[in-house]
Automatic annotation (TrEMBL):
<dbReference type="Pfam" id="PF25003">
    <property type="entry name" value="DUF7781"/>
</dbReference>
<dbReference type="InterPro" id="IPR056683">
    <property type="entry name" value="DUF7781"/>
</dbReference>
<feature type="domain" description="DUF7781">
    <location>
        <begin position="15"/>
        <end position="186"/>
    </location>
</feature>
<protein>
    <recommendedName>
        <fullName>DUF7781 domain-containing protein</fullName>
    </recommendedName>
</protein>
Length: 192
């Protein structure tokens, strides 16, 4: 029985170990080889996935280098898919639209897809997704895709209601390094 009926029971705060979780093991590893020639970039992507299942994909990518580029061509020899994708079209500051059309040779099927993407948002939780690039030297870059899911701290209180005068929820952070890309680019050759 409560000895002080005017004060509500408050749960003990979680330990610091329960308030954050940081995972530095990437679920995707990409090795990209790129060759730039006369305004175009030809790339060979080797993509390794270890979560939720182990998988491997190879992609050949062709796209123009100009700032006005509006498309890229992708061929996946293992799945026998050919796709032409638009560049990400900004709808708002944080929302992008991408449209594509493709053909699968093994199925003999043609179809189109669209995708809305954002660096913010998640499943009933606040989320930031971003890519950070690090240039090691000329022609060698590393790109890290990371994600942070968070619940901001919350401070509440009441007076005369039977609830505590001051209550604090410490929030929560779950961060992960989702993708590591090693990008090797061979630039334009200068001919006389």
């Amino acid at each position: 029985m409560d000895t002080n009926p005017g004060v509500a029971n408050v749960e003990e705060p979680a330990s610091w170990d329960e308030l954050y979780n940081i995972n530095l093991i990437p679920s995707e590893l990409f090795v990209k080889f790129r060759k730039e020639y006369e305004g175009f970039r030809l790339g060979v992507n080797l993509e390794f996935y270890n979560s939720p299942i182990n998988d491997f994909q190879t992609k050949l990518v062709l796209k123009p280098l100009s700032n006005e580029r509006r498309w890229k061509f992708i061929y996946e020899p293992i799945h026998q898919d050919v796709r032409v994708l638009s560049k990400k079209i900004p709808i708002t500051k944080f929302l992008n639209l991408q449209v594509g059309i493709g053909h699968n040779f093994s199925l003999g099927a043609i179809g189109w897809k669209w995708k809305l993407t954002s660096c913010l948002g998640g499943d009933n939780i606040s989320r930031i997704r971003n890519k950070t690039s690090l240039g090691l030297c000329e022609g060698v870059d590393f790109r890290f895709g990371w994600r942070a899911d968070y619940v901001l701290p919350e401070i509440t209180g009441a007076l005369g209601t039977g609830e505590p005068l001051f209550n604090m929820n410490s929030g929560r952070l779950e961060a992960s390094l989702d993708r590591v890309e090693a990008i090797f680019t061979h630039g334009n050759e200068q001919y006389p």
